[in-house]
TrEMBL record:
The keyword Transcription regulation applies. Residues 15-80 form the RNA polymerase sigma-70 region domain. This is RNA polymerase subunit sigma. One of its GO terms (molecular function) is sigma factor activity. One of its GO terms (biological process) is DNA-templated transcription initiation. The keyword Disulfide bond does not apply. Residues 113-159 form the RNA polymerase sigma factor 70 region 4 type domain. InterPro entries: RNA_pol_sigma-70-like (IPR039425), RNA_pol_sigma-70_dom (IPR014284), RNA_pol_sigma70_r2 (IPR007627), RNA_pol_sigma70_r4_t2 (IPR013249), RNA_pol_sigma_r2 (IPR013325), RNA_pol_sigma_r3/r4-like (IPR013324), WH-like_DNA-bd_sf (IPR036388). PANTHER family: RNA POLYMERASE ECF-TYPE SIGMA FACTO, RNA POLYMERASE SIGMA FACTOR FECI-RELATED. Keywords: Sigma factor, Transcription, Transcription regulation.
Amino acid sequence: MSGTDVSHRNHIDGLFRAHYSWLCAHLRRHLGASPSVEDIAAETFVQLLQSPGLTPIREPRALLTTIARRLIYQLWRRRNLEHRHLDQLQHDDPQSVKSPEELVQLSQALQGLDQTLGRLPGKVRATFLLSRVDGLTYPQIAAELGISQRSVSVYMTRSQALCDRHSANQPLNALTRRSA
């Protein structure tokens, strides 16, 4: 471990000690008594810890708030996607109403897929979600993210390949096929 790694870790440790309680209180004001508050606050610091070559932070609370807000949006998007998918499965064929066990398995599979997508770089993940979740076209995605349509195509190919590898190892396909 290099000296800069230790220095970076120590810097984030200091930020954690100084601002974790404040961040949790701030998140509680916006999310209420959600069990996700501590998870989001902790993940905020994990992301700081994982960011290479972080420059000195002049306004740590502003940065922490920005990262936490992005994590909240990701949580909401993931929950909306999960609910829409489960609703769609139940509305497609009323005869194929899932048992609670199947719904839990499906939810776990979706969470696994979300974790898989979480390994993608930000713009690649955003491209995939804007296409698959929000239904935007490649030109719309390019305009939204300020990238070329070629980049959108490359990012979609990359994210789709990752999803294909993920689905080959998950029970999601088996669950959705059983209802067909």
